[in-house]
Amino acid sequence: MMDPSETVSSDRRGPGPVVRSGMVWLVVFPAVFMLVVFFLIPMFVALRYSLLSTMPFFDPETSYTLANYIHVLTEPIYLRSFVRTAGYAVTASAISLLISYPVAYYLACKARRGALILLVMLIPFWTSIILRVFSWKIILGSSGIINSLLRAMGLIDLPVQLLYNRTGIIFGLVYTYTPFMILPLYATLGKVPRELLEASEDLGYNKLQTLWRITLPLTRSGTMSAVILVLLACFGDVLSAQMLGGANTLMISSVIFETFMGGANWNTGSALSVIVFGALLLLATVLTWLGREVEHA
Fold first, then answer.
1. 17-31, 148-162, 244-258: the lowest-pLDDT one
2. Read out DSSP for 116-166?
3. Which has the closest alpha carbon to 170: 229, 242, 241, 276?
4. Which neighbouring-strand residues pair with 275?
5. Residue ranges of the domains in the chain?
6. Where do runs of H (alpha helix) occur along the chain?
7. 199 CB-near residues (< 8 Å, 6+ apart)
8. Do the Cβ atoms of 66 and 49 come closer than 8 Å?
9. Cα dist. 260→60, 272, 285 in Å?
10. Chain segment 30-80, per-residue pLDDT in tens
C-alpha cells in the first residue's frame, strides 16, 4: 500500500517536464511568430529581389546578378544620404540622451511617484505619430510659437527658418524618439541599489560625485542599449524627413521609400535596404561590444 506522504510529495512536485515545455512554447510562440513573419520572411524576400535583374512577376526569365549592389555602392547619392542620415541620427541621439538621462534619473531616484509621472508624460505619445510630427510644422513655422516668442522678446526681426532643413529634422527626431530612451534608462536607473548611493553619501561624496562614480558606471550598459535603440530608430524614420525636411536633407529612409514607391524599382530598393540593414547590424554589434568592453574595464 502506498504511503500517503509519498502521494503528497508527488503532488507537490508540480507539472512534469512535458507540461513545462508546452507552457514555455506557449509563451515564446507569439514572439517567434512575429519575428518570422515580420522580419525574417521580409528580409529573405528583400535579399532575393536584390539579387534579381528584374521582378519575377514582370519578367519570368529574370536572372540573378550583382548589378543592383554595384549600382548602389557606386552611386554617390546613396552614400551621401547615408552619411547625412548618420549625422542626423548621432546628433538626435546625443540630444535625446542629454534630455532623457536627467529626466529618467529624477523619475527613478527622486520622484515619489515616478511611474505615475512617467505614464502622464507618455500619454501624448499615444496619439498618431503623423499628428505629432505635423504639429511641429505649426510650432516651427514662420508664424509658429518659437518665432512669435522670439519676435516678442525682440531677439529677431525676421522669422528664423526652422522648417525644411536640418534643424526641423533634428527637432522631429528628438521629439519622436526621446521616450524610447527615457523608458530603458528609467528601468536601468531603478535597478541601482539604494544602499550604494547611501554608502557613497556616508563616505563624504556629494550628489555629483555619487552620480559620476556610482550611478553612471552601473547604468553604462543600459545607457548604451538606449542609445543604440534610438540611433537605429532614427535611421528608419521617414515622417520627420518628409514632413520637416527639404530637398537637400534627404535621409536614407526617404531614398529607400522613393526608390520603391516613386521609382517602382524594387530590385535597387531591396539592394539598398539589405546594405543599410547590414551596416546598421554591424554598427549595433560594434557599439554593443564597445559598451561591454568599457563596462568590464
1. 17-31
2. HHHHHHHGGGGS-HHHHHHHHHHHHSTTSHHHHHHHHTTS-SS----SSSH
3. 241
4. none
5. 69-296
6. 4-11, 17-35, 41-50, 67-74, 76-105, 114-122, 129-140, 145-152, 166-190, 194-202, 207-210, 216-218, 220-235, 239-244, 252-257, 266-296
7. none
8. no
9. 20, 10, 28
10. 889 999 999 999 999 999 999 998 877 667 777 899 999 999 999 999 999
CB 288 within 8 Å of CB 228? yes
Residue given cell 534579381 in the structure block? 52
Instruction: Name the grid cell of 74.
Output: 557606386
CA-derived radius of gyration, the chain: 26
The whole-angstrom separation of Cα 266 and Cα 54 is: 8
Q: What length does the chain have?
A: 297
Give CA–CA dist 70/23, Å, rounded: 48
Tell me the CB-side half-sphere exposure of residue 41, using CA atoms within 13 A.
7
Provide the grid cell at 25: 512554447
The Cα–Cα gap between 268 and 248 comes to 22
Q: Which CATH class is domain 69-296?
A: mainly alpha
Residue 167, amino acid: T
Instruction: Reply yes or no on whether the pLDDT at 264 is more than 90.
Output: no
Helices 266-296 + 67-74 axis angle, to 10:
70
